[in-house]
Amino acid sequence: MLLSLVIPVFNEAATLPLLLPRLRESLRDFRWEAIFVDDGSRDDTAEMLTSVALSDPRIKVLRFTRNFGHQAAVTAGLDFADGDVVIVMDADLQDPPELLPRMVALYEQGYDVVSPQRVSRQAETAFKRWTATLFYRALSRLSKQQLTNDVGDFRLFSRRAVMAIRSLREQHRYMRGMVAWLGMKEAVLPFERHARAAGETKYPLLKMLRFAWTAISSFSALPLRISIGAGCVLSCAGFLYMFYVLYLAAFTSELVPGWASVVGLECIFSGMILLALGGIGDYLARTYEEAKQRPLYVVTSVRNISVVPRIPERAIILDSIDVTEVVDEGAGPRLVEDVPLFRVRG
Ligand code: UDP
Ligand code: MG
C-alpha cells in the first residue's frame, strides 16, 4: 500500500526542518511519498524542498508560478497523488504526523474519509476559537450538507474518494464542503491541536473572512434568498403604514411630524437594499468567474513527479519542468540588475 501526503506550503522555511524528521519517524513502517505544493513562497522554501527532493525521491515537489491559495494547492496535490490512501496536512505541525498511522488503521477498517477532529485548540486565541465555532454553526444551518464540526483540511481520503474529489473542478473551492457534499463513509478521530511549530499563520483575519464567505456562498444560496424575504416583509409594512397615514389624513386632523424618524428609516432601508444588492452582486461575480472556466493553478516546475501523461482538467503545467538546478521563479516580478539602463534619446 502506498501512502501519499499532500502538504501545501507557503513561506514555510521555518517549519520544514522540523516537519521532515517527524514525518520520517512516524512513517517508518509505511511505503510513502510526500507531495509538497509550493504555493508561490518567497522565502527559502523552494530551495529547501529542492535539496531534500534531490536526496530523497519520496519527496515530490510541485511549484506554482504565484500564490494561488491553500485550497488550490491542496487541489494540485490531490491531482498528482498516486497513493492508495492520500492524507492532506499542513506543514506547520499543527496536524501531528504521529496521528497518521491511526488514520490509516481506520481506513483499513473500511472508511473512505478519516477526519481528525480538533477537541482542543491549544494556543489558538480565544477570538479564533470563538469565530470558528460560530462559523461552523452558521454554515451547518445555512447549507444542506452536514459539515463535521471542528474538522479542518487535515484528512485522509481513500483512492476512490480522491478520484471523486478530482472531478469537482469549481473555481471557488471549499474542500470541507466538497467532502460533505460527496457524502462518503467517514470516521472522526478526535485529537489535540497544538500551536504552530514556527513561523506565522498564513491565514490572517481578512483572508479567513473571505474564506468563510467562499464556504457559505459556494454551498448555500440562502443569503440571496434572505433579501427576498426581508424585501417582502418591509414592503408589506410600508403599505400598511401608507394606509394608516391616509386614514389619519382623511379622518383626523393630526399632522405627521417627525422628519428625523423618516430620514433615519430611510438610511436603514437604503443600507439594507445596498447590502442585499451587494450580496447578489457577489454571487453574480462568482458565477462570472466560474463561467470563465479559468484553470485553478499554474505549475512552473516539478521535481520527482512525471506530470506529462496526466495533465488534469483545469490546470496549466508549464514547459521546461523538472529542473535540476535551484531555480528562483514564482516570487513575483524581479528587477533585473545587471542589465545596462535603457535610455530613450530625446
Ligand atoms: N498555505 C498555502 N497557501 C496560502 C496560505 C497557507 O499553501 O495562501 C499553507 C501553509 O503553508 C500551511 C497551511 O496552508 O501549510 C495552513 O496554513 P496556516 O497554518 O498558516 O493556517 P492556520 O493553521 O493558521 O489556519
Ligand atoms: Mg496552521
Task: Describe the structure in your own words.
- This protein is of the alpha/beta class and 346 residues long.
- The chain has two domains: 2-219, Alpha-Beta Complex (Spore Coat Polysaccharide Biosynthesis Protein SpsA, Chain A); 222-292.
- Helices cover 45% and strands 16% of the residues.
- It is built from ten helices and nine strands.
- The chain has helices at residues 16-26, 45-55, 70-80, 100-108, 126-142, 159-166, 175-182, 205-219, 222-251, 259-292, and strands spanning 2-9, 31-38, 59-64, 85-88, 113-121, 155-158, 186-193, 298-303, 316-317.
- The protein has a nine-stranded mixed sheet with strand order 7-5-6-4-1-2-3-8-9, sandwiched between helices.
- Strand 2, helix 2 (45-55) and strand 3 form a beta-alpha-beta unit.
- The longest helix is centred in the last third of the chain and has 34 residues, at 259-292.
- Magnesium ion (MG) binds at residues 90, 92, 94, 196, 201.
Features of this protein?
346 residues; alpha/beta; Spore Coat Polysaccharide Biosynthesis Protein SpsA, Chain A; nine-stranded mixed β-sheet; elongated; binds uridine-5'-diphosphate; binds magnesium ion
Question: What's this, in brief?
Answer:
The protein is an alpha/beta fold and 346 residues long.
Distance between the termini: 70 Å
Please give the largest β-sheet: 9 strands, mixed
Please tell me the total number of domains: 2
Mean pLDDT: 88
Number of strands: 9
Ligand identities = uridine-5'-diphosphate, magnesium ion
Helix content: 40-55%
Overall geometric form: elongated
Order of helical and strand elements: EHEHEHEHEHEHHEHHHEE
Calculate Rg over CA atoms: 26 Å
SS strand fraction? 15-25%
| CATH architecture level-2 label of the largest domain | Alpha-Beta Complex
Low-confidence stretches: none
Annotated CATH homologous superfamily of the largest domain = Spore Coat Polysaccharide Biosynthesis Protein SpsA, Chain A
CATH class of the largest domain: Alpha Beta
CATH fold-level name of the largest domain? Spore Coat Polysaccharide Biosynthesis Protein SpsA, Chain A
For the biggest β-sheet, the strand order reads: 7-5-6-4-1-2-3-8-9
How many helices? The count is 10
| Structural class computed from helices and strand pairing | alpha/beta
